[in-house]
Specification:
Helix content: 55-70%
Strand content: under 5%
Number of helices: 6
Length: about 150
């Protein structure tokens, strides 16, 4: 493989790729995914649930592999962020966090204010889940064990 790509070379490559529609397709689902599903439906009209499950697992694996390769290609073709860009990103995230009162509450208190069991100890939560299971007839008991602080360094 050739040496490092210059900025002009990277810009040219990205422009050609964008014109050809090869690497980055945006955040919308490409039409070819829906076409694949329609093609399977047309080719196998008598497909049962197992056939559809096999198709879905195979299709998801194929899409995942393609996305991984495209992500790798994209990361190899883009320049790493500069310290100024990283600082700007950090400032933007801090501004977003400051606007989100719920997230700040979670960081300050350790639980979500919208959580009906928020603020309870792990043992109390376990008891509440067991109670919910008995009331709802699920018969599912939750076991909650406190293994200590996950961020503690040993």
């Amino acid at each position: 493989m050739a040496g490092p790509v210059t900025r002009i070379g990277a810009w040219t490559r990205r422009t050609l790729e964008r014109l050809l529609g090869r690497y980055y397709e945006g955040h919308t689902v490409p039409r070819r995914f829906a076409e694949e599903v329609r093609l399977f439906r047309v080719m196998y009209p008598m497909a049962d649930g197992d056939d559809w499950e096999q198709f879905a697992v195979s299709f998801a694996g194929s899409v995942y592999r393609q996305a991984f390769v495209r992500g790798l290609e994209h990361s190899e073709r883009t320049e790493p962020p500069t310290p100024e860009q990283l600082a700007a990103d950090n400032e933007w995230e801090a501004a977003q966090l400051a606007q989100d009162g719920r997230m700040q509450f979670i960081l300050d208190h350790g639980y979500d204010p919208n959580d009906p069991l928020g603020g309870l100890t792990l043992e109390q939560r376990g008891g509440a889940y067991e109670h919910y299971g008995a009331v709802l007839g699920g018969g599912m008991a939750a076991s909650v064990v406190d293994d200590g602080d996950p961020d503690a360094v040993e």
